[in-house]
Automatic annotation (TrEMBL):
Keywords: Aminotransferase, Pyridoxal phosphate, Transferase. Its cofactor is pyridoxal 5'-phosphate. Its EC number is 2.6.1.44. SUPFAM superfamilies: PLP-dependent transferases. PANTHER family: ALANINE--GLYOXYLATE AMINOTRANSFERASE 2, MITOCHONDRIAL (PTHR45688:SF3), PTHR45688. It comes from the Bacteria. The lineage of its organism: Bacteria, Bacillati, Actinomycetota, Actinomycetes, Micromonosporales. It comes from Micromonospora mirobrigensis. It holds the Pfam family Aminotran_3. The keyword Transferase applies. Homotetramer. This is alanine--glyoxylate transaminase. InterPro entries: Aminotrans_3 (IPR005814), PyrdxlP-dep_Trfase (IPR015424), PyrdxlP-dep_Trfase_major (IPR015421), PyrdxlP-dep_Trfase_small (IPR015422).
Amino acid sequence: MTSDDLLARHRAVLPSWMPLYYDDPIELVAGSGRRVTDAQGRSYLDFFGGVLTNMIGYDIPEIREAVERQLRTGVVHSSTLYLIRQQVELAEKVARLSGIPDARVFFTNSGTEANEAALLVATNFRRSHQILAVRNSYHGRSYAAMGVTGNRNWTASALNPLQVAWLHSGERVRGLLSRLDSADRIDAAVEDLREVLATQTAGDVACLIAEPIQGVGGFVAPPDGLFAAWKKVLDEHGILLVSDEVQTGWGRTGEHFWGYQAHGVTPDLLTFAKGVGNGFALAGVVGRAEVLESVPAISFSTFGGNPVSAAAGNAVLDYLRDHDLQANAARVGAILADGLRAAVSDLDQVAEVRGKGLMLAVEFVRPGGSEPDPALTGRVFEACRAGGLLVGKGGLYGNVVRMGPPLTLTEEEAREGLAILVDAIRTSVVAA
Ligand SMILES: Cc1ncc(COP(=O)(O)O)c(C=O)c1O
């Protein structure tokens, strides 16, 4: 309970469909590096980073100073009707990093708006509102973004401006394709795509939108190479590929800078959000000029790429590069993944330890099968918090513990968090 009963005040004025974590929700009042402190003075190692968004960590001097420099100019906002130096610089960096040739960048405030913009562009370019999306996906909370979201728990309305046909995900633990090994799963997914095109679409289709690793879906990844195999079929029809990199971007997966690179293909459009602002509202879409320029009317975002967010974004990307955080994600992520596999893979309740770099998950099931166990997951989640570690939850059935710590996580912090997590899992399993 917070001293001024913040929880009661929260519940009195904020909607209940916006959930709070933990039986006894916490207010974070201070942060430094990878650690946060709550209103009761308890300290936590943060393995979730405000949902993969505090990508560099808390109170990073280089980012704070860049934002303060911009604030001191007095221009917090000007609108995109005027030239914004920070925005142009950031667009240059993002375009270069994107891997997309002759790229244009449009900035928004959230991942939802970024995907909305990608869908706007794709539907205009292709003169079609037919979209292919993937089961178990999450792309945001607007009507179009919800419309391509394949998770009922996150689909607050069935109203949909798009016509959507659904593909199988790369789910390994359950679902039709899970019965197959990696190579066969790619073949089956391609066959599925051909069948969906033949049976559920008519005429031109605008795009396929997919996450390289499904975030909200519980860090479910298709076999590497699936996007390239899909793209061969898409190219036969001129259908665009949109890679939603809101969770997988900026080196988080360790092995690559973008999730799409594991698939050996470059998408036509790429959306980004979360980590690039390290907490400042910053997101956007990148695409080839001919695609991104297809919007036939004025479309602008009042706050998208504003001077303060863009200053933060520039500082974040400089910090990432200067400290080679992608390499750190690979190195420290391996410590966590190997340690977790060694310590809990033997448990019947652990269906899978999965992920790449610093994007890792543990899926919990009832022993002897693949029936999800959200209750056990909840106990592990609370036990982590009691032990001083913040983690996330996810998965279609709420039975996945997710970790997306700042990419600056040190080896010592990884080992410290690992010990808390392993203890939380082992004690929760015994208590079942
Ligand atoms: C893959 C993905 N796309 C889009 C979104 C939506 O982003 P936002 O919450 O910033 O609108 C999210 C948010 O979790 C996401 O994980």
